[in-house]
Amino acid sequence: MTNHTKHDSIRAELQTRLDHLMKRAQGIDSELSEPGDTDWEERATEMEDDEVLATLGNIAVKEITEIREAIGRIDKGTYGVCSRCKKAIPAERLDAVPYAKTCTACI
Ligand SMILES: [Zn+2]
């Protein structure tokens, strides 16, 4: 086992999560771009749903970005190192948030 493959299982997990989020985000996008019903009452309900979907979309986009960055750090060999204090991020924190880029003290 070389250092290169040290984070392979995490990388695979992140990639799976990323694929899932991408599919979900694309699903949200297609729902948002559907032409709305002209009936006013239904239109109002749809707008509320759209806001909920847009919020979900923003969360997904943020997570997609963070996961992509984490995969990039694994490839560069800087994964698991705090981006602020440069100390190792505790394993428990990486278990809870695999794409964490700061340690518990630097959140
Ligand atoms: Zn730190």
Automatic annotation (TrEMBL):
Zinc finger (dksA C4-type): 82-106
Domain Zinc finger DksA/TraR C4-type: from-to ranges: 77-106
Signal peptide interval: none
Keyword annotations of the record: Metal-binding, Zinc, Zinc-finger
DnaK suppressor protein-like N-terminal domain mapped to chain residues: 12-74
InterPro entries hit by this protein: DksA-like_N, DnaK_N, Znf_DskA_TraR, Znf_DskA_TraR_CS
Name of this protein: Transcriptional regulator, TraR/DksA family
Gene source species: Neorhodopirellula lusitana
